[in-house]
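quick one before i forget lol
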Amino acid sequence: MSRHSHFTILTVLACVVVWFAGAARAQDRKPNIIFILADDLGWGDVGFNGQEYIRTPNLDMMANEGMVFTDHYAGSAVCMPSRCALLTGHHMGNASVRGNPGWTFVGRPVNLGPNDITVAHELKRAGYATAIIGKWGLAEGDDDLGMPSKQGFDYFYGYRTHRAAHHYYPTTFWRNDEAFPLEGNKTKEKQGRYAHDLVTDEALRWIRVHRDKPFFLYLAYTIPHLELTVPEDSKEQYKNLDWPKRRMNTKGHYHNDPEGNVAYAGMVSRMDRDIGRLRDLIAELGLTRNTLIIFTSDNGPEYERKDRFFNSNGPFRGGKRDLYEGGIRVPFVAVWPGTIRPGTTTDHPSAFWDLLPTACEIAGVEPSRSDLNGVSYLPTLQGRPDEQLQHDVMYWEFNEKVGPIQAVRVGDWKAVRFLLKDKLELYNLADDPGEQQDVADTHPAIVQQMRQAMAEARTDNPAFKLEKHPRVKR
């Protein structure tokens, strides 16, 4: 055997030893948590929930290898409050942020503040490296108290505000507390680096840097939020399929591509592709069995609130800005090899405000606050449904153009109340998940119970009143 052959064999053996040593160290430490959030993706936009047109092979593989939650809920029907619920463990009755920036009653955006304790704060206490990469959207205007660096995150890269995140070729991004230019990007012309690609590449880089200690990565994608645009290579598989055409407005605030259906499908599949890249990296680093990866969406669909080609909200009624199921029930899949049994499904009702107590239980720390609305769904992930705590009440409120509206779920009962009409609709989700049959008139006792649940779930907040907003002229 030549000296070169000996050297090659020794090199390979050394690499194998290093990989196994890294994998062994990974099993001895606290689990990594990667939380991937899509933006305006409907419950029915993924293959594992029945999507027939848009290809999501990597998300479907996660479903085959992990657990799908069929009854998982966003924190709100729009972006900013939903993300607040996700990070703080509070539903809309107690959250500090209950509406998007332009819909407060105090004339300015309300951000996360010094009294908020986020999941990142809690995991830092447990020794985790923490990062938010992508869309933040909880530090609008000049107030920097809501910035990720003030909310438990060691690292931030991406969009600071919602409006900036409407564009996929922005001229500016943020790294930690500083803005920096994206050289060569032209927003209106859609030229330069596609922001989603920048976010993915940065997430992969950050994981490589922090692979040797427990980490929490909140990967907040902007796909498939308007504007609808994607590089041509992601459209190729959807061209010439005899799909109906949907013309888009290309000259307004959103610089959409001219045809919507192919662009929308291409965007979702590009995100799916990059989730596959992330999982491949986790496997390459020997971290697969010690990493929980969760994927979900921040609210129901916007692009297909009315059009039904993709059937984005599945069997549910409504979409973004609705408190019907289509506006708040979202896709959710979790994979954690060796912990989550492959190919499982649960109908355990869960919500964004459950992430913080779940992460705390995984990390082995008690939540800092005792007034959380969330309950840990770790028992469900671990296949211990008999030990899973249940929500007594799940609560939402929303007050934009169609508000104010409240909604509660208690067991299989769901109530939606339109306050200006003083009208409460009642549905049994076990019999009627599409909320087509209002049974309020035949169940007066349940109606009273739901009204009481709405009243008890809510604390007053002068920035988010349940009355007609001044911007609404009707």
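fyi The CA atoms of residues 32 and 291 lie 5 Å apart.
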